[in-house]
C-alpha cells in the first residue's frame, strides 16, 4: 500500500508532485495588464501643480508605448463622461458592423428628437446613411442623433447597445464604468472614471479607421432622404485645438480625440498626441470648470510630457 505520509517506507506523493510542478512556470501567456499603463493612485509630474488640478475633477497622462502613467489625479473617481461616451460607441460599432453598411434613421434618431442644447448632425427620420458617415459625425461633431442611429442599428435598440457597451467595458477591465446610452446624455446610472476612459480610448486607437476619423479636419457625408433626394452634410471637429479657439501645445502634434460637456459632467476632453519623436500619449481632463480652463489645463499636462 502506498501512503502519502512522511513515515519510514512510504512514498511522499505530495512532495514529489510539488517538486515536479511547483518549481516550473505553469503560466506562459501574457498578463492582460502587461500591455497597459498602470498606477495605483495619484502620480505627480513636474510642471503640473494645484493651479491646474484645482479647476478640474480628474486628469491623467499616459505614455502609450512606454506603458507608463506619467501623471494622474483622482483618475479612479466616479465621474460622468458626457460625450466622451461616444468613444465606446465608436469602438462597439467598429467591432460589430461594417463601415459600408447603410443605416435607415428612425424617429428616435431624428435631429428634432433632441433638445436645442443637445448637439446633432442633422439627420432625419427615413434618411439612409452609411455607418462610416455616422461615425464621422459621431466623433467629429458629437451628434447625439448619430449616436442613437448607430445604437439602434448595431444593437437593435438603445438598451441592447448599452449591454454591448458594458460587455466591452468588462472585457477591457473598465470596472468603474456603466453605460445606459450611446450618447452620454446625463443619467445618474451612466458613469465612468478617467482611467477607464484611458482603457477604452487605448483600445480605440488600435483601429486604423478610428484614428483616420479623429485626425480628419472635416468630413462631408452623403445622405439620401426618405424622398430619394440626396443632400450633403459637412462636419468638423469640436475640440478647440482643431477649431483654433485654443492655442495648440508646444512640441507635440495633436492627433485628435473626443470632447464632452454637460452641466453635471463639466467640460471633458480625451486626447491623442505625439511628441517630436512620434511617440504617442493619451491625455485626459474631466470635469473642468469652463472650456477655456479645460484647454489651459490640457495644454499644461501635454506640455509636461517628460523628455525621453
Automatic annotation (TrEMBL):
The active site is at residues 83, 86, 142. Residues 57-290 form the Peptidase S11 D-alanyl-D-alanine carboxypeptidase A N-terminal domain. Pfam families: Peptidase_S11. GO terms for molecular function: serine-type D-Ala-D-Ala carboxypeptidase activity. Transmembrane segments: none annotated. One of its GO terms (biological process) is proteolysis. It comes from the Bacteria. This is D-alanyl-D-alanine carboxypeptidase. Substrate binds at residue 258. Belongs to the peptidase S11 family. PANTHER family: D-ALANYL-D-ALANINE CARBOXYPEPTIDASE (PTHR21581), D-ALANYL-D-ALANINE CARBOXYPEPTIDASE DACB (PTHR21581:SF33). Keywords: Carboxypeptidase, Cell shape, Cell wall biogenesis/degradation, Hydrolase, Peptidoglycan synthesis, Protease, Signal.
